[in-house]
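Quick start: what a row looks like.
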Amino acid sequence: MANKLIEADVSWPGDGHLVRGAVVYPNDGQSHPGIIVSPGAGGMAEKDKEVGRRFARKGYAALIMDPFSSIPENEMPADRSFQNLLPIFRELDDRSYMISLDNGFNFFGSLPMVQEDRIGVIGFCSSWSILYACSNPRVKACVSMYNNMRYRELAKANRAVQPVDRIPNLWCPMIGHYGDDDASTPVKYLEELEELAKKHEKQVEIHIYPGRLHGFVESGAPEAQEDAELAWSRTFDFLDKHLIG
């Protein structure tokens, strides 16, 4: 019988605020490779905790962080639908989020069930997982679930450089999953990413899924299910190689 999972709410210091999160890991008394999950515009919802469980069932410890931790509760909308949260998500401060993510990395690595030298990061929608993998040499693997490669505007939320232009500083292998019908990241941006990775000898593996929109892995849409599972299968092959192998 498979080991049950342990799941708990956690918190750690961020950039002048407390970061909310959750950990999930196998209940086997062992230490495990770790993966930090950075959710998309819906915040840390049940589907994101299920992502953590998916990792834990595969033998990983997972830390999920709430991207809206920096927003006071009384400033959050009562209706937390995706449509209401998206404008707030787009205005979150990159520099502040990197501090929270880095403190989360240190917190996560200090836990006894986590192998601190085998931690990767996965991000949905926002470019934060890529930005972090380009800034922290301790990150061993990066998974981009349709991370944005170019901002609409730079002069907002401490955004001075386009995410794609940070690829020369990438510290670890990276895998990315994108739909070819994703308006936020056109295929031409991915071609630019691959050219930069090749030029600077970075290990970047990009998969493009025909007919898929932004968010196809999380959407639950029946027509995207096969590609979503393919993306997960490729992700675990990648992580098993770089965090376990």
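That is the whole record. Residues 160 and 238 are 31 Å apart (CA to CA). The two ends are 25 Å apart (CA to CA).
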